[in-house]
Model the fold of this input.
Amino acid sequence: MITIKDMADMLGISTTTVSNVIHGKTSEVSQKTVEKVEKLLKEYDYVPNNSARSLTQKCSKIIGVSLKGRKDQYDNIIADPFFSVLLGAIESEIRRRGYFMMIYTSDDISELIRNILTWNADGLILLGILHDDFVKIKSRYKNPIVLIDSYAPRDIMNYVNVGLEDEKGAYEMTVHLLERGHRRIAFLADNMEGVDYIRYIGHQKALARYGLKADSKDLLIIRAEMMEREASMEELFYLSRNYTAFMCCSDYWAVLLMSYFSDRGVRIPEDLSFTGFDDVLLSRIIRPALTTVRQDPAKRGRLAVDTLIKMIQEEEIPEWDVKLPVELVVRDSVKTISAYGNPEHSMEPERGIDDGVDE
Amino acid sequence: MITIKDMADMLGISTTTVSNVIHGKTSEVSQKTVEKVEKLLKEYDYVPNNSARSLTQKCSKIIGVSLKGRKDQYDNIIADPFFSVLLGAIESEIRRRGYFMMIYTSDDISELIRNILTWNADGLILLGILHDDFVKIKSRYKNPIVLIDSYAPRDIMNYVNVGLEDEKGAYEMTVHLLERGHRRIAFLADNMEGVDYIRYIGHQKALARYGLKADSKDLLIIRAEMMEREASMEELFYLSRNYTAFMCCSDYWAVLLMSYFSDRGVRIPEDLSFTGFDDVLLSRIIRPALTTVRQDPAKRGRLAVDTLIKMIQEEEIPEWDVKLPVELVVRDSVKTISAYGNPEHSMEPERGIDDGVDE
DNA sequence: TTGTATGCGTTATCAG
DNA sequence: CTGATAACGCATACAA
Done:
C-alpha cells in the first residue's frame, strides 16, 4: 500500500502536488510533473486510504443501510425474498454512484445508532423502521436519511420516504375480489403498523365503496412462529371455513399458506382464493400462480439511493413522500364466484359513496 | 459528536487518560478520574471515530464480503435465494463478533480490489469467486481471506475454503434417481466450473458405479437469458423427451423449470422427474415438493466468519478446506419407475467397481 | 508552479 | 498515576 508521501519522496516533490494530480487539479501543476506522478500512480496502483480521507473531510463516502431485525419474523431479514431484491438494487446503485454500503441490522436500536455514528456515514437508508425508532435515530444522527416503507405522522417530524401506493394497491385488490363475487374475505397481516396498516385502510375503503363494512374479526394477524405451532395453524385452518378468500399482505405469506392449505386438501382457488402483495419470483413460479400487487423493488432501491445522494450533495431537498406506483397482476389464485356471491350485496359499488383513495 | 479531546478539555485532563479509561486500562488511572470520565462518557454518549482508529491501528474492524456479480445469471446476485440466506447469516455473525460488514459486488475484479484496499478491510470473505480472480485478489491483498464454494487447484495456492460435500451430494442424488429406476438423466448446470463441475463429477461416479457412462450430450448448460429466449426453451423442451429426469444443480433452476414444463402440460413427476440442490424455501413450498440436497447456509455463513476472525486474530490457521455435510431430502418430484427401468442395466451396482467418493 | 504547515480523532511511546 | 508529543494518511490554506 503506497502512500502519497511515499510517492512524493520518490519523485522529490511535495505531497501537495501529488494530491493535486490525484484530484485532477492539473491546471495548477506543470505538464511534466503531472506525467511523472501519473506514471507512478499507475505503476504502484495507488489506492487512497479512505479512513484518512474521512478524517480530513466531512464525508466518508459510506452510506449506511439499516434494517431493524425483527426476531419474531424471519431468521434473518436479509433472507426475505422482497428485502433481498431491494437490498441488491440498493447495493448496486450505491456502488455505481461511487459510494460504499455498510449494512447494520440490529434489534437494538441504540447499538444501531452507535454503528452509524462510529463510521460517520454520509447518509442513511432505513428499511421498515417504526416511527419511534426513527425519532431516536434522528435525534442523534444529523446527516440525511431516506426511509423506505415508513408511515409516520407528517406533523411530528419531517422525513423523506420512498414508499408505495399501498393503499391503492390494497384497494384495487379488494375491488378485484369483490368483483369476482367474494364477500367473505379475510385480511392477513404481519402486524397493524406501517405498511400493513395502510393496506388495511385501502381494504376497508374498498369494502365501504361496496356498502360493506370491515369487521375486525376478519383481520388475521399472522406471525412466523405460527407456522411452527400446530395449534395455531389448526385454528387458522378452522377459521378459513368462514372465508372464500385470503387477502395476504405479502406474497411470502400467501405462498406459504397456499402450500399449507393445499396439502390439507383445500383446493385453490376452488375452495379458497388467495392474493398476495409484492409480486416476487415465488408468486410467478407457484401453481396456481398468485394474483398479487406488483411493485418494482429495483426501481425503489435506485430511487432511494438517488434521493439520498441528492440530499447529501445538498442539491436540493427532494419530494418528501414519493409513492411509487403499483399494479394489479391477475393470475390464477382467485376464483370467480359470480353466481355464488352473497345476494344481498349488489356487484356494483353503491351510489353516493365515494371515498377517494390516496387523495 | 463529542471527541476525546473535547472531554479531556472539559475535565482539564489529557487525552491519554481519557483514552485509557475508554479502553479499560483503569489500572493506570486513579479511581476518581475513572469515575469522572465515565460519567462524561455516558452523559454525552461518546462514540469513537472508527476512521481515526483505523488510521492509528493496523485493524479497521471491517470485514469485506465480495460476490462477483455475474451479469449472465441474475439481475443482482444478492437476490438469489441461496445467496441471500447465506449473506444474512454472515452479516449477523460479523456483527455479533463486533466487526462491520462492507459488501462489494462487482463484475470488474480490479474495481473490487480497489474497494477492498481503500478501506483496509481486516479480512475478506469471497463468495463464488473463480480461481483466476482469486489469484488476482491474493496478489494485491495480504490480509486473511476465506472462500466459500471455491474449488481451486490446491498445489497452486494455499487457501481456506468453507465448502460443501458437493460431490457426495450429487453422487447420492444420482444414486437415488438410479434406484428409482431412472436411466435417462439429464444433468443441468449453470456452468462447468467450480461447484457445478464437482457436482458433475459426483454424478459421473454414481453412474459409473451402476455400470453407466456419463454422456456429454446429457450435460445441459442453462443460463438466465435462456428463460427469455423462446427458441432456447423450445429446444430444451424438445430435448426433455429423451429423459425421465432432470437433475439440476440448484433449486432455483429446478423450480423455475418445473414451473415452465408443467405449464406446457408435462406432468411432474409422472412424465419428467426433477431434483434440485440447496433446499431453499422455494423447494419446500412448490408442489410437487422438490427432492433435493440439503445444506445449511446459515451454518456455513457462521463458520466462514468464525474461521476468518480466527485468522485475523492469528490464533491459528484453521483447516484449509472444510466440507460441510449435505443430506438427501426425498420429497415428491421423483417418480419411481422400477418396472420401466432400462432392462439391460441391473438395479444393483455392478460388482468390482468401487470408486469411493470424496476419498 | 510548487512547497510548508496544520489539522482531522485516535492511539502509543515515553517522560515526568 | 498523568501528560506531552508524535504518528497514522490525506487535504488544504497559505507561502514562496
